[in-house]
Automatic annotation (TrEMBL), chain A:
Membrane-crossing segments per the record: none
Domain of life: Eukaryota
Gene: TMCO6
Protein name (record): Transmembrane and coiled-coil domain-containing protein 6 isoform X3
Presence of the UniProt keyword Zinc in the record: no
Keywords linked to the UniProt accession: Membrane, Transmembrane
TrEMBL record, chain B:
Domain C2H2-type: from-to ranges: 62-85, 89-110, 126-149
Gene3D superfamilies: Classic Zinc Finger
Superkingdom of the source species: Eukaryota
InterPro entries: ZNF511 (IPR039258), Znf_C2H2_type (IPR013087)
Name of this protein: Zinc finger protein 511
Organism: Alligator sinensis (Chinese alligator)
PANTHER family for the chain: ZINC FINGER PROTEIN 511
Gene this protein is translated from: ZNF511
Length: 456, 248
């Protein structure tokens, strides 16, 4: 158990390093539960790697016109789980040609076994092995418009593995029409196919040249005009209802890309995008996710808050909704989670406070100040800086908050940071308010009459 | 909606201004989510549900007349059906891997109007979905597939229609599953000489190794190796002499 954990940690560190170097490549392996009894990729491979002669013999056996052919192909498929066997196989002259011939066979079970062999090769960590699959790509793409769920899924995952292999592979796949071939899969009603499709697309986007070659082909304005944002919102609502029903295993893997899509589309600030998302239930969904994944997948909290920022930055709709749905306490509860979460929470609160005195008054009523004082005491300069910005906005629009702040020993919390070069100017500006008499906010006389008190 | 005054710029020394954030791929905010995804891809995450076992049923055979394949899983049957029986040309009974290729086949092989129009304008469409190019001949189309779309020059699903009756060619797909003299240096595949998958292959259960093959010269590069049309393999003649294709 301990060494298992250790190896996970080592892997974790390696993945982070790879990501920082922009070399994060992972492939997916579909392997059936056949002889192993375990059926999980990466578990023990039962047989030893084959010798070159044995590989040759297997290959010959697959050429016979008898029942034995399917058995030989099965053996080959198993043998190809070994990297060394893979390497020997692709080095044999004509071997890929034979395999591709079998892959295009009209005998369905032969074709399926050959497809599994190709899939094993595509998964190889040896680039020479994966690139040996290149002659098969035109057929992989042709078969995507077929109807067999299992076969299509296998082709998709094989393509996804190849796509991420190298720029050379992509330089072939893109002119071969991979994007339009994938489009034909979008219509499929089968979950397995859609998941495989998602895999290929996400692998395509991993490519270094994606931002130059692939992403510009995506017309965000067109997507938005066709209502993609409404669709994404509905999808999130659906996912949130699944969380409530406790059918949540692995759900974060589905939620994350949708959050990212919505957030980045909003960031484009294109016409029409704001209206498509204005649904209060979206807020409820986000907070459902954050509460549910708080303890195990903090990254979901981060990415939900990113979306929340993009929703609240410009339009007052969601700022109002945060108040009327009484979500401020839940937001404040997230402050201690992590540094990045704290920064994002404070930014969202700033977005709300910036909208004016009616909003600040309500924030004040929600006891924002006590949370801010704690966080100010504990934090590093960047988080403290964001705190100061929020305090400024609150005091500006709702001076009663300033008075309250100083009675709660806010001054001491400020003093802590008064010599920090990044913070001192702002700290002093706020400290000055302690000595001034509380002025009535220009809007307080009007707003106290007009502002509805928030619902319980 | 609560009232909102006009947005004013921040008052110095404060600098906050609400701003939507765009996170490109390498943004640090996305790091944790990315790592999680890769752990999943590498099957480290144990919580993700396992592949369910496929139920086996007692053996049953394909219900299409003339097809004697037998199955013991629904998936096996489904794949067989989709490969051989789903996209079948009602004129010549050839089957295709997709509806798209079937449509092109019917147009080019069985539509007399197509032949007339092809004399005057470019009618041969590119096989790649999403490409709108059309060509005057199937050879021009093949050149396009190879040079622009990087397709192999022996792409199985792009064979030109033969001028003569191709009765004999309908048997040639058997070759690809036949035994042949094995040369250590090369494994040559006799190529299918038409743009389709022939249903004749379901004779597999009764077949013996075909031995009357010509041994093909080893070829290092991706040239198509054609079986001369005079070769007939006798075996597995599922159909008799076919009616001549309509000629224009």
């Amino acid at each position: 158990m301990v060494c298992c954990l250790q190896s996970v940690i080592v892997l974790f560190v390696a993945l982070r390093k790879a990501r920082k170097q922009q070399q994060l490549i992972s492939k997916r392996l579909l392997r059936e539960d056949t002889q192993n009894g375990e059926g999980k990729a990466g578990m023990e491979i039962p047989t030893d790697p084959l010798s070159e002669q044995e590989v040759l013999q297997l290959l010959r056996d697959t050429q016979k016109g008898t029942e034995e052919r399917k058995k030989s192909l099965s053996c080959l498929r198993q043998a190809l789980q070994h990297k060394e066997t893979q390497q020997k196989f692709v080095r044999l002259e004509g071997s890929m040609r034979v395999l591709i011939g079998l892959f295009t066979s009209s005998l369905a079970d032969v074709q399926m076994e050959a497809a599994h062999c190709l899939h094993e090769l595509s998964h190889s960590s040896d680039p020479a092995v994966a690139e040996a699959c290149l002659p098969a790509t035109s057929y992989l793409l042709t078969y995507l418009s077929g109807h067999s769920i299992e076969f299509t899924e296998l082709c998709l995952y094989t393509l996804g593995n190849l796509v991420v292999e190298s720029e050379a592979v992509r330089k072939q796949l893109l002119p071969q029409g991979i994007i339009s071939a994938l489009a034909s899969c979008i219509q499929s009603p089968h979950e397995a196919v859609l998941e495989g499709l998602g895999y290929v697309l996400s692998q395509l986007l991993q490519a270094k040249e994606a931002s130059i070659e692939i992403i510009p082909c995506v017309n965000n304005a067109l997507l938005i005009s066709q209502g993609i944002m409404s669709t994404l919102v509905l999808l999130l609502l659906e996912l949130a209802s699944m969380v409530s029903k406790a059918v949540a295993d692995g759900l974060e893997l589905l939620i994350c890309p949708v959050l990212r899509c919505l957030s980045n589309l909003l960031a484009e600030e294109m016409e029409g995008c704001n209206m498509q998302v204005q649904d209060e239930r979206l807020l409820v969904a986000l907070f459902t996710f954050m509460q549910y994944f708080l303890n195990h997948h903090l990254f979901i909290v981060q990415e939900c808050l990113w979306l929340l920022n993009n929703l609240t930055a410009d339009e007052p709709f969601f700022c109002s909704a945060m108040l009327t749905l009484d979500l401020i306490p839940a937001l404040l509860q997230l402050l201690p989670c992590s540094r990045m979460v704290a920064l994002l929470v404070l930014t969202v609160l700033c977005n709300i406070a910036e909208k004016g005195c009616a909003y600040c008054q309500q924030l004040h009523q929600k006891a924002v100040l006590s949370s801010l004082i704690s966080i100010l005491t504990l934090s590093d300069a960047e988080v403290a800086g964001q705190c100061l910005e929020l305090l400024h906005l609150l005091f500006l629009h709702w001076p009663e908050a300033a008075a309250d702040f100083f009675t709660q020993a806010g001054l001491q919390a400020l003093e802590q940071h008064q010599h920090h070069p990044e913070l001192q100017e702002r700290v002093r500006a706020l400290m000055n308010l302690a000595t001034q008499p509380t002025a009535a906010s220009p809007c307080s006389l009007v707003s106290s009459a007009a502002v509805p008190s928030s619902l319980p | 909606l609560l009232p909102v005054p006009a947005r004013a710029p921040p008052q110095a020394p404060f600098r906050f201004s609400p701003r939507r954030l765009r996170c490109p791929r390498e943004h640090e905010l996305l790091e944790d989510g990315d790592i999680h995804r890769h752990l999943y891809l590498q099957d480290i995450l144990v919580s993700v549900t396992q592949v369910t076992e496929k139920p086996k049923v007692s053996e049953f055979s394909c219900h299409i007349a003339g097809c004697c394949q037998v199955f013991d899983t629904l998936e096996g049957y489904e794949h067989h059906y989709n490969t051989l029986h789903r996209n079948v040309c009602s004129f010549c009974k050839r089957s295709f891997p997709s509806g798209h290729l079937l449509d092109i086949h019917i147009l080019e092989w069985h539509d007399s109007l197509f032949q007339i129009m092809a004399e005057k304008q470019s009618m041969y469409q590119c096989l790649v979905q999403g490409c709108v190019e059309k060509f005057k001949s199937s050879k021009d189309r093949k050149d396009h597939l190879v040079t622009v779309h990087l397709y192999p020059s022996d792409f199985r699903f792009d064979r030109p229609k033969k001028a003569k009756s191709s009765t004999k060619h309908s048997k040639s797909p058997l070759l690809q599953n036949a035994s042949m003299p094995v040369d250590i240096k090369t494994f040559e595949q006799p190529q299918v000489d038409s743009m389709e998958i022939s249903p004749v292959e379901n004779m597999e259960n009764a077949s013996q190794p075909l031995s009357s093959l010509i041994s093909l010269p080893p070829e290092k590069h991706l040239n198509r190796s054609r079986i001369p049309s005079t070769i007939c393999f006798g075996q597995g003649a599922a159909r008799g002499f076919k009616s001549m294709r309509k000629k224009i």
